[in-house]
């Protein structure tokens, strides 16, 4: 049998990640795989791969973002299609992994849906998973197959180091919005040469948080907040109000995944935030128009392309991320 690293590589895109996948293929100097994906009138999804994948090393790039359930089902159908078409190896590339926040039982009679989704992807026939900034690092262990967990730190570091070189980040403070992100904020502080501050956060509900104390000094500082995602915007907006109240000169909010669900855009539009920086793990559409003048979108295509290249040729993935801020604990 031909080994995967000796076979021809093929990259396919789910509908939610077509633009990102195209950029990955441009980086790798190859064409995107031909596929037809349609939704029937009753909501059923069909995927038809329109080129030969027999014996090929295949990668499917698909973010399970909104609409989460539709994209998840498309991914499962995609993998089954490729497996039945005799692909040698199928790697699921998840720029954004939906259901990641349901990673534990924090009260009685609730599911651990992140584990359920991991089981579904495994049972669909995938051979391995490549993900970017999972909400919790332990989700890697939910999969009964190899998982490569990428950090978007190199993408953010490059952007913010360029800003710093221009003098646009004076008196920088890296602010962790909660205790779970302290190590990442500390590593960013080391990379960018800034100080560290931490917020005490208490969650009232799924969309409401309260913040009333900060460890560290933010007065007359440029505050950079970094998290794995901006979902409803509650955390980042309340944090921005708090640091402004305590005298921050400038506030920048950065997150790998711009989920921007519910009233997030409305909240961000009225929040005292000078700049919002996200990546294109989730496609940005017209709903962000109210914040577009302050929104910066960074591209993770080079990050994903290099990882796909290393997986295909059985090279180290961890070697790509030396001296980075790592992943959220």
Characterization of the model:
By secondary structure, this protein is of the alpha/beta class. 29% of the residues lie in helices and 25% in strands. The strands form three sheets. The protein has a seven-stranded mixed β-sheet, sandwiched between helices. A five-stranded parallel β-sheet has the order 1-4-5-6-7, with helices on both faces. The protein has a two-stranded antiparallel sheet with strand order 2-3. Helix 5 links the parallel strand 8 (172-176) and strand 9. Helix 1 (18-28) packs across helix 8 (301-312). It is globular.
List strands and helices in order, with pairings.
Blueprint: E1 9-13, H1 18-28, E2 35-39, E3 45-49, E4 57-61, H2 68-84, E5 89-94, H3 113-123, E6 128-132, E7 147-150, H4 153-165, E8 172-176, H5 182-192, E9 195-203, E10 209-215, E11 222-230, H6 234-245, E12 250-258, H7 264-270, E13 275-279, E14 295-298, H8 301-312
Parallel strand pairs: 1-4, 4-5, 5-6, 6-7, 8-9, 8-11, 11-12, 12-13, 13-14
Antiparallel strand pairs: 2-3, 9-10
Helix pairs in contact: 1-8
């Amino acid at each position: 049998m031909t080994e995967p690293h000796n076979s021809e590589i093929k990259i396919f895109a789910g509908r939610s990640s077509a633009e990102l996948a195209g950029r990955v293929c441009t980086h790798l100097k190859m064409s995107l795989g031909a596929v037809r994906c349609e939704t029937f009138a009753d909501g059923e999804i069909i995927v038809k791969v329109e080129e030969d994948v027999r014996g090929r090393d295949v990668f499917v790039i698909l973010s399970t973002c909104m609409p989460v359930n539709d994209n998840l089902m498309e991914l499962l159908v995609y993998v089954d299609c490729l497996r039945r078409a005799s692909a040698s190896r199928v790697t699921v590339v998840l720029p954004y992994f939906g259901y990641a926040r349901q990673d534990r039982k924090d009260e009685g009679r609730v599911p651990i849906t992140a584990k359920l989704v991991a089981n579904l992807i495994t049972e669909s026939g995938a051979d391995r998973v490549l993900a970017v900034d999972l909400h919790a690092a332990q989700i890697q262990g939910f999969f009964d197959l190899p998982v490569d967990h990428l950090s978007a730190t190199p993408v953010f570091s490059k952007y913010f180091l360029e800003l710093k070189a221009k003098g646009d980040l004076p008196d920088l403070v890296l602010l962790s919005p909660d205790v779970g992100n302290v190590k990442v904020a500390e590593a960013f502080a080391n990379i960018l040469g800034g100080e560290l501050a931490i917020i005490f956060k208490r969650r009232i509900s799924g969309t409401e948080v309260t913040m009333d104390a900060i460890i560290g000094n933010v007065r007359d500082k440029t505050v950079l907040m970094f998290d794995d995602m901006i979902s409803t915007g509650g955390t980042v907006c309340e944090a921005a109000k708090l640091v402004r109240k305590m005298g921050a000169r400038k506030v920048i909010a950065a997150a790998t995944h711009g989920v921007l669900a519910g009233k997030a855009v409305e909240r961000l539009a009225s929040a005292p935030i000078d700049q919002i920086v996200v990546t294109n793990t989730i496609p940005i559409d017209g709903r962000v128009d109210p914040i577009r003048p302050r929104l910066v979108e960074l591209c993770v295509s080079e990050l994903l392309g290099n990882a796909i290249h290393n997986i295909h040729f059985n090279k180290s993935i961890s070697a790509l991320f030396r001296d980075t801020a790592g992943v959220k604990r």
